[in-house]
Design the sequence.
């Protein structure tokens, strides 16, 4: 048993010495500075209006709308009118305005 212990000690000694030796680390070469690029031209921003952000159901010009579809369109439009006013105001007025707008779309 002693013979195998000595061989193991001798075999590990060179490996330990190899691990202890510092290795040289290559540093990457510095890259040359890139030429400044010209800034890209931006398109002017479109101005948003409240009217543009409120959804209005648009239908093809010659399509007939059933009474149920008309009612639902008015209901949705009146909701968005109330939403834009913070749900304060006269709900009947919102409904009448929405009814007028939807009727104008289909006339």
Sequence:
């Amino acid at each position: 048993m002693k013979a195998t212990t000595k061989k193991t000690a001798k075999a590990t000694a060179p490996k330990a010495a190899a691990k202890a030796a510092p290795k040289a680390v290559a540093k990457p070469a510095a890259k040359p500075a890139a030429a400044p690029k010209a800034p890209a031209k931006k398109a002017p921003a479109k101005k948003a209006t409240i009217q543009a952000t409120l959804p209005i159901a648009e239908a093809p010009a010659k399509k007939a709308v059933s009474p149920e579809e008309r009612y639902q369109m008015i209901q949705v439009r009146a909701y968005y009118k109330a939403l834009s006013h913070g749900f304060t105001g006269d709900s009947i007025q919102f409904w009448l305005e929405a009814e007028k707008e939807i009727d104008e779309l289909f006339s």
In short: Residues 70 and 103 are 8 Å apart (CA to CA).
